[in-house]
Specification:
The chain has 84 residues and is an alpha+beta fold. The chain has one domain: 2-Layer Sandwich (Beta Polymerase, domain 2), CATH 3.30.460. It contains two helices and four strands; from the N terminus they run H-E-H-E-E-E. Strands 1-2-4-3 form a four-stranded mixed sheet. The radius of gyration is 15 Å and the shape is elongated.
């Protein structure tokens, strides 16, 4: 049920998301009935300046959403603060 809840949360709350990653105990298989869902959500390019953490409840389960706009570092110089 955990993976289904995470997918549903992302689909309802961040339908524009490019990718989502489940982390924490839910991803490692150690989730209990009181565990939260830790979800990293990547938004498309037009949201590149967006970044926030949201703690909410979805379908009775605590969710921590780590939301970031897609911003890729240039592959030529990873140490640089320049972006592609």
């Amino acid at each position: 049920m955990t993976l289904r809840s995470a997918r549903s949360f992302v689909g309802v709350n961040f339908p524009q998301g490019r990718a989502a990653f489940l982390g924490g105990s839910a991803a490692s298989g150690g989730a209990t009935a009181s565990s939260d869902l830790d979800i990293l959500i990547v938004l498309p390019d037009e949201w590149s300046s967006t970044s926030f953490v949201e703690t909410t409840t979805y379908e009775g389960q605590l969710v921590e959403a780590f939301v970031y706009g897609l911003r890729l570092r240039c592959a030529v110089n990873w140490a640089s603060s320049e972006y592609c």
